[in-house]
Amino acid sequence: MLRISKEEPALVIDWDVEAVGALVARANALVTAPAVPDWLTTARPPNITTTSLIGDLVRHLAQFGGGHCGRVVLAPNDMGQYTRLVLELSAVEAHPFLQAAIAGAPTGQRIATTYFMLDHQINQSIPIGRRRSSPARQLFA
Q: What domain of life does the native source organism fall in (predicted)?
């Protein structure tokens, strides 16, 4: 059972499938790309798909806390795991391969919006509104 509370918050990911598809197209077209991330295991360029990228990302992020429900909810067991999960989102964003792929995207385009969920009512989810201290382009809002 998925438990969600103030002590065990969930992170909800609302994927922008069109933006993910555009990122995948740019990633697959990179000629001199930086090394791909280790967590990208289902497919490598030029065979990455929207489904493979989202699946690999969720499986990777789920390692940092609790588990997951499909491709939209990550469920840390405590605030420490939640913090590690949010920090890993920043590390994923900053990876040189993903930064190279996002470089051609329209300014402000994100592949997903992330929400902080404190109970089982999805309409009560709060946008995380992560602030960036690095020069890396954001993939997640």
A: Eukaryota
